[in-house]
Structure formats: structure tokens, C-alpha cells
Amino acid sequence: MPKQIHLAAHFPGVNNTTVWSDPAAGSHIAFESFRHFAQTAERAKFDFLFLAEGLRLREQGGKIYDLDVVGRPDNVSILMAMAAVTERIGLAGTVNSTFNEPLDVARKLASLDHLSGGRAAWNVVTSWDEFTGENFRRGGYLPKDKRYLRAQEFLETAKTLWDAWDVDEVLADPTSGRYLRHGDAGRFEVHSDQFDISGRFATPRSPQGHPVIIQAGDSEEGREFAAASADAIFTRHAELEAGKEFYADVKGRLAKFGRRHEDLKILPAATFVLGATEEEAAENARQVQYQQVGPQTAIAFAEQVWNRDLSDVDPDGPVPSFDPKTSDDVDSGAHISKGRASVRMYKDPVAIANEWRELGEREGLSLREVVIRKNGRHTFVGTPQRVADTIDEFVQSDASDGFVLVPHVTPGGLDVFADEVVPLLQEKGSFRTEYEGTTLREHLGLQPSPTTTTPAEARA
Amino acid sequence: MTFHLAVALDGTGWHPASWREPGARADELLTAGFWVDQVREAEAGLADLVTFEDAFALPGDERADRVQGRVDAVLTALRVGPVTSHIGLVPTVIATHTEPFHVSTQIATLDWVTSGRAGQRIKVSSDPAEYALFGRRDPEDRESLFGEAADHVEVQRRLWDSWEDDAEIRDAATGRFIDRDKLHYIDFEGPHFSVRGPSITPRPPQGQPVVTALAHVDTAYRLAARSADVVFVTPDGTGRDGPTGDAASILAEVRAAEGATDRTTPLHVFGDLLVLLDDTADAARERLRLLDAADGTELRSDARILAGTAGDVADVLASWQDAGLTGARLRPAVTAHDLPRITRELVPELQRRGLHRTAYEADTLRGLLDLEHPADRYATA
Fold this sequence. Notes:
The complex is a heterodimer.
Chain A: E1 6-10, H1 31-43, E2 48-51, E3 59-60, E4 63-64, H2 75-83, E5 90-96, H3 102-115, E6 120-125, H4 130-133, H5 147-162, E7 170-173, E8 178-180, E9 187-191, E10 196-200, E11 212-216, H6 220-229, E12 232-235, H7 240-252, E13 265-270, E14 272-274, H8 278-292, H9 295-306, E15 337-338, H10 349-363, H11 367-375, E16 380-382, H12 384-396, E17 402-405, H13 415-427, H14 440-443, H15 456-459
Parallel strand pairs in A: 1-2, 1-17, 2-5, 5-6, 6-11, 11-12, 12-13, 13-17, 14-16
Antiparallel strand pairs in A: 3-4, 3-15, 7-8, 9-10
Chain B: E1 4-9, H1 32-44, E2 49-52, H2 73-80, E3 88-94, H3 100-113, E4 119-123, H4 128-133, H5 142-161, E5 168-171, E6 176-178, E7 188-189, E8 194-195, E9 210-214, H6 218-227, E10 230-233, E11 238-239, E12 242-243, H7 247-259, E13 268-277, H8 281-295, E14 304-308, H9 310-323, E15 327-332, H10 335-352, H11 365-368
Parallel strand pairs in B: 1-2, 1-15, 2-3, 3-4, 4-9, 9-10, 10-13, 13-14, 13-15
Antiparallel strand pairs in B: 5-6, 7-8, 11-12
Helix pairs in contact in B: 1-10, 3-5, 5-6, 6-7, 9-10
């Protein structure tokens, strides 16, 4: 049997890649959209649904950014509701470790796991920005250099809480009159740099023990964190050679943490555009790119690099001849763009601007066309057969274990993939035709989460 | 509608020995099926709403012969939402240890998922064990706790209004998805937190999901008067400070507290009653005696305990309506036994007396409670 592909479906988010102007684009907040998306992914036997997070509306030039989709539900909440209209598919939510308390998050995820029958997953992210902190009790309290420490300790604390109950603690036996084996079940304490908490965790051990842990991030610290603690890693390496390199690097780190090759799944984010022929797919892809980068969006993207107002620049004219403003670092409160992680790619804005200008001059492209070239590339473009072959090639050649697919239209953008690509993957024998297990750990081929607690028999 | 009916769900029931009873399903308490079935039963009885209890800490008595352990109430409501159709879902929220921003979006999500059936019961926590779970030390005094809860609700309410209903415009010509002039910073500043806004979640279908509180003392009546739409009170019950008084005297206290605020819509005042229902009052009392014997202690409750027939309960509810209460919240002692008795015996009795609806007359919880769709506080039009 060929190596099995794992697929996740990312509900389209608040980026320009989500095309809201398409006639097929539906609501981003009505439950019907989430129901449709979840049921399509489950019909296609995907491993899990995935939701990104943003806890403050983005701003540009001191105003709320209005060109992209805005408005989303609370992640764990909407996953819980989607559990009610699906039976098997995993439910993965991004939850920030900076603007939450471990007791609360561990309890929410354990509850999601219980009430979904073992389908919960958590994408652990961390941030330090004061901008987002303005919506929360402690504000922007976390120094940048402590963010991985915070995330690591937060995750370790959550695991301590999930392990606070023995697997067989709840008896619920009316004959003997014993509900629990131990009246003081759930006791724990954590004393670390970030946390000093103790008591009894209120939620008994959930079906998966530990929800599936996902980590995003390609940095050195992120790779180490994932190799040590995560069950899946969400990356941007959706190119074959770069993917193989990343895959080998991260998998190679597992052994030193006593983990097996298959204990960490590597899942790049990927987009797709299909067509009946290669030419039709390429034309569809071109149209989607123009929808994703309208004239106003092209200016907004340029402003993020130039770090100044460019509202008087013509998007259909050349790339501006003047240099970006470099006085404010992208992490400083004075940068034109706030709440957008992608601007950190512009560490050297003058070099980026030169690159854009050269590309424009060399190929006679307008500013908008340059932005499209730089930002609008799709991962998979082609006929369903071509896309299925490419995905399979990635997985069989160890460039990934599968993909997190991000459609560009809500909620029906996944339908065509489910109908036309998935059956071809199934024909190859590299993607399931039925769910074999009931929990997300089983879908992903992960081991049951370890129990660090003493078995009850040994304690008695 | 003249009188409203709520059901308070708390696992297998409000008697600590309820989990041992036939049909209690104590081994399913952490599963979705258990909760879906309870709420559907209440919905079959045309109840306005169900409440879900919650707490971060476990009981300090550490008794292995009682139920301990629970799942999150807000998530339980979210799991039930898509598979029910009319009943209001009112989970407990602990203001003391949660972020008002997160709670606001969680409740707004519940409202979106249910097309307008979301509420919450706001609760304060003075339990030192709960403080330790969050790495906090000495609990604050009562005034401060209730003040924080009022601020918590204020932040939630401002965040719900921070998007005007028509903020999403999808204007292809200008490339704008939203009209940002219809999104608003809330700029709340208080002693416990400051919140800038706007929300990440569009204004929920009800505009303002329903806020409720359980109150036994004047501090709590003042919180309810300032922040809530519905207050649950305990006529002829016992609060932490002693007897709470009868329905009329409690109502007078609540209305006095309202008089000190600028609210224009009167609070709904629901009386809480812990019930054991049977064919005869003797049978109900015998059931209570056996449950007490199984637990080894006499049942104690802040609410009045009534072991009797459906007619007995209907009599109490009728007297409360006469006293001016607008509804009742029933706490079944044994969910498996007393909830079906409520929906299949008490409800028909109340319908005969004109005290309960015969069909759902609205699709939202605000609608069931005769509350209008509220104007957005930030809208200028």
C-alpha cells in the first residue's frame, strides 16, 4: 500500500486570498456556511477542519483594514457547533497562548474532545504584540523573547492538566455507590516561569487524552518546538525541493526527543485551481489572481512595503520610483500595517522595492501585476488528474505527509476538490475511502497520547 | 404570553444522589448525547430556555460518592445548538476569571449558530480554589467582584454593538468588504481591564444576546438591574446571608434596584424552584427521603424545595405570577425522572391554567421573552 495522504480543510480566512466578490461567495459568519464546508470535507474523508485566528481587526494607516473579509466566530465555539453536524472529521482550532490562561484553554479543548467523541486539535500559536493586547486584561505584557517560553510552558501546563485524571477514574457505578475511584481526582500543580497554579482540574480525561497538537512556523525555534511537542506541523513549504529539505530536517529532529518518524505529520498549506484542461485551469488561476489582488489591494500591499500612504499612486502604472520609508521597524507600533504577521517578511523593504521595480521594468508589468506575481501564486493549478498526481508525488517523495487546503471561495470552494480530485487519490490507493477510526489521532495514524499518571490498580 | 418557564440543567439533577437513579446515565455525563436529549426534552415542553451550570473548581468536600467533573457549559450549549430549533440556550459564564473579549465572541458565536437563541448566566467566583487555578491569590470583596462582573457584561454588550448590523457591504466598485465607519472602538476602561475593540465577530442576530443572573442579595440584585435582562431569584429560599423572603418582597427589592439605574425595559424576574414530581405528594416526599438516605445528608438548596404533584408546582407558579414574577426556573432533582414529569405533566397543567404557551411563538430567545431587537448604541442613523 502506498504511503497514505492526510488532508485538512482550512475555512477561508480574513486574507485577500479569500475572494468575497465572486458571485458564488457566501456568508463568512452564518452557520450554514460552516455546515456546508464541514460536511463537504467529511464527505471527502478529510482528516480535519482547520481554523486560523485573529484577535484584533487589522489596521492600515490608522484605520480598520476594509478590503478583505472581516468578521469571524470564536474558533473552539464554532468547531463545537460543527461537531454537531458531522461524525468523524477532526476539529482543529488555532488558540493563542498569550491572551489566554492554560486552565481555561485546557478545559475548553478537553470539553471539545469529550463532546465530539475524540476529534479535537489545537494549533498552538503565540504573539507578543501590544496591538492585540489592547483587547485583553493584561495588555501587551509579554516580551518578544519570552513568547516561545510562554508557548512551551503553556502547552506543558495544558498536558499536565489533561493528565490530571486517570483514564479509568470515573466509575459511575450506582451499585457500589462510587462515582469516582478517588474523591480528590484531578489534583495538579504547576510552578514555572509563566505559571504558578494548583488545585483540581474539573474535566475528566477526554477520549484522545491529549487533543492533537499542531504547531505552525518555520523558524529554528518553531521546528524544535514542533519536533519536541507537536503531532502535526503546518508549514508554508509547498514546493517540492524546499519541502523535501524541510521534511528531512524536521523529521530528523524527532529521534533526539525519543519520537518516531510517524509521530509528527508535516502538512504544508496549499491552494488549488482546477480546470477541464491545463489551459482552462491556467486561465481560471489568472482570473482568481486578479480577483484576489484588486487595484485597491495592490496599493495596500505596496503600502505595507513602502510603509507610507500611496493612495495617489496608480495601481496600473509602474512600481513607485521612490524608496520605502525605513525609519519604523515592522514590529514597531509606528508601522503603517498593524495586526498582520506577513509584513515581517519585509525586513529589508528597500531591497523588496528594488526587486519589484526591476521585475516591473524587465517584463513591462504594472504595480498591480507585480503584486499579483509576488503574492498571488497558487500551489496546484491543473486538471484534477494533474493535481492528484502532484499531491501524491509530494507525499510519496517525502516532501510532505499531506496538505492543508485553503479554498478561495466560502463555503463551496472545496466542493470541486471533493468531487473531482479526492476520487483520483482514492484510486491510487493513497487516500482513505472510509474513516477507519473514530478519533483524529486514529485518522492521522498517531499513537494514543501517553499517560503519565499511575494506573489506578497500582495506586490502590 | 403571560408566564415564562425555564429549566435549569445540572448533570443528572440537583439532588447529589440523582446520579444513582434508574435512567440517570451518569456514565454519559461527558457525552454530547446526554445533553442533547435533556435539552430536546425541555424543548418538547416548550420551555423558553435552559440554563447550564458551570464552575472551574470541583467541590471541596471531595466525596467519591458524588458526581465530580464536568464539561464547559458554553461549549455544551454550542454542541446542542445545531440540533435544537426554538429553545433558548443559556450557559453559565464565570466573569471573575475569564476575558470579556473571548466570552463576548463565544456568546455571539452561539447566537450565530442558533440564529438568535443565545444567552448567558453571568456568575462571580469568590472560591479561593478557583483563584488558585488561575494563579491568583486572595479573592476580592463582594462589591469588587460584582463590579467586575458588571464591567464584564458592559464590555460584552459594547463589543456586540461594535459592528452595526449593516457593516458588511461587499462593494466591488471600491473593493471594500466592510464600511469601516460602521465598526466602532469601544474603549472601555475599568479597574480590572481595558478593552479597545471592535469585536472580531459581527453583531449577532439578536443584537444583544440575553444576559441573566442568579441573585439572592441586594448586591446581586443591583448587578442584575444594571446588566441583565432576566434575574433568577429564590422566593422562600436561603441565600448566603440567610432567608431571601417571599416572592413579593424579593420583587420589591429587585424593582427598587432597577429604580436606581437608567434602564427602560423592566427586568424579567423568574423564581427558582427545586422540584421532585410524583403522582402524589407522599410519593414525591418518599422519593426525597430515599435520595437523602442514599446521599447520607438532607438536601439543602438556596432555592425552595418542593416535593409534590404537578398541581402543587402549578399552584406555586400561579401564586408567583400573582405576586408579579414573570416566570419560573425549575431545577429537576433527578433529571431522568423529574424533567419528563415537568414536560409531560406540569406543562399540560400550566397550559390548562393559561400559564404556558401551546406553541413557540418566536424564533429567537429575545422574541420568546418579549424583548425587542435592540438598536445599536453606536449607530448614528
